[in-house]
Amino acid sequence: MPRFSIIVPSHGVAGRLSQALDSVLAQPFGDVELIPVCDAPGSPAADVAARYAERDSRVVPVHSPPSAGLAGARNTGMRAATGAYVLFLDGDDTLVPGALAALDARLADTGDVDVLYFEHERAPWWEGEPTNPAALLWPRRLPDGAFAPGQVPQLTGVRLPAWSAAHRRGFLLEHELRFPGGHFTDVGFCGLVALHAERAAVLRRVVVRHLVRRQGSRAARPGEHHFELLDQTDLVLTRAAELGLPAERSGPLFAQLFAAILKTAAHPGRLPARRRAFFRRASRLYRRHRPAGFRPPGGSVGVQHRLLAAGAYTAFRTLRSVNRAAAGARERLPRPKGLRTRLRYARALRRPLDPHLAVYCAYWGRGYACSPAAIHAKARQLAPHIRGVWVVEADQAHTMPADVDYAVIGSRRYWEVLARATYLVNNANFADAVVKRPDSVHVQTQHGTPLKKMGVDQVAYPVVAAATGSFARLLARVDRWDYNLTSNRHSTEMWERAFPGAHETLEYGYPRNDVYCTATADDVARVRRELGVPEDSTAVLYAPTHRDYRTGFETGLDLEAFCEAAGENVVVLLRAHYFYDRGGSPDTGRGGRVSRVIDVSSHRSSEDVCLAADALITDYSSIMFDYANLDRPIVVYADDWDVYRETRGVYFDLMESPPGAVARTPEELARVFADGSWAGPEAAAARAAFRERFCQFDDGRAAERVVRRVLLGEPPESIPPVLPLAERVPAPAASPLVRS
After folding, report:
1. Which of 4, 45, 344, 547 is the most exposed place for a label (fewest CB within 10 A)?
2. Half-sphere exposure of 93 toward its Cβ, with a 13 Å CA cutoff?
3. Mean local confidence (pLDDT), 533-560
């Protein structure tokens, strides 16, 4: 029997779950059983947990459906536990170093106790000093060893989270103690534990470091779930009455539970509606459970107690309410430039949403492109009743297809459609001034798989952070998202870290990559003709990424010299990063001679360019993840990997798991093509492993899944499943040497 069973529910925290598991497994005290509770086999967290279970036999994953909530996950973990003591961690919390050894030592001093309370830190998710709220809750004097709960009546348990105590498993089984369903489950569970415990102890030391999520705790979010605080209060006080709890214990328990209820009743942000109903039910509970001889505290809190007992809601509201309407209105005021535009936009926001209007945008208004274009095209087939309007910069309006409606960014119509659209789809972000209306649906499609650090993960890299600007404004944009798309499990985890928010992740694939499974040989031949690729030539796409530490575009290669060394039939398709596709042809390395170098930087579709290419050379661009769907050779040209990694930050070491051959100098790159290793068996094996990891969901039906789920409102279980990688047939390459 292990000394400790540590239960870690993981719903919605796959991006940080590894930190929690590492903090347990790294403890010098190793007599533990670690039980991650995951949604279902194949979920993001389940994949993380499975990797740990393969490496360490102490990790025993179990599964609980999301519908069971936090209580169901913890109860599932307890049923699987075999340890002498049970601890709980949230999936993004950690044990501090030496925590388990300290718990074991304290239990050795006190002997077996039913519950051992300990301190915890609350660490701000972004910045600031951690706090130790538990230390403020301990009574001034505590027995040195174990004690009966009646000796310390102020220690009721209801003010502590479940992860601030170790529970003897035999005690939980004996009294059949489980987490009650619903929100505020810690109040119910911890209250019942304290009522039934016969021996308790306290460890005055921080054991758990709790990450305060950016969205805040469940207790602080608005909604009718706050009525469940009344359910938990009723549960605990009813059990206390059944057990005949003496007045010296029932008084503090009653006072602490109703302190939380009064705080909720007085907070308009927590109960935007039905505050009167909450107050009246709380008043009935107050009168039913008030202990004999209970004396309310003094001051204004005592007045609140008396008003609650009397059911005097109007007087209570007058006493405690704070007029926040004006401040809230100022915070929500739209701020587009120009007073006249602001007034028009504000007026449009008062009109009802158009249920049949969708607004699309790609690359900050650069035209009809990427996943938004793929979703728009599929919506015309499957949801023709949804009218799509694109928003584009004025200098890109001429690039829009003739049959696609659009509005120029900044125009009167632009603000009108943004104010009234029910659906807003973007691969970047809409302007800061755009207001997220309550019933509108924002879809973030992303525009690549992250190798480099993104979002708030950039804060540790000064050059990048300076270019990013205000992270607060970035997160305000993230707060508008309802859905975020990913194309692989790696992206799911990294986006969760980089863009913390309350949005739902859709593991549907990137719609822009659908074409890699649906295009035909005729499509490939057509695109090659349009780009001017000579027949019977091997077209190599060279697509380097942007360098944050450089200004302007540099190819990094003498492309003419590369063509001559690589073979007489090799041509290069040069595609600069989209930051640089408006400035004319980049320098190709020999005074602008482009006889065998075709500049495709201004071509609107990167997907077309990839279809035309027989192979890809890139450095650290996310295009490699998309191109891998074609199962064609990829060569990584990593001449400055160490510099890039240190200045930009990366999520994994590309040199350890590349998608093919790697070259670090121009000579190595030319040799890779001259000797054929670019398309050899070693490169193919590396590409296969890369595809297995990063091409999980791109099966050609991503756009359909998005349209059905978001625009048509079909339930998740009816959405077409992802086709396994082995069953997909990528678009054929033009050269038979590299055909899939």
Report:
1. 344
2. 24
3. 80
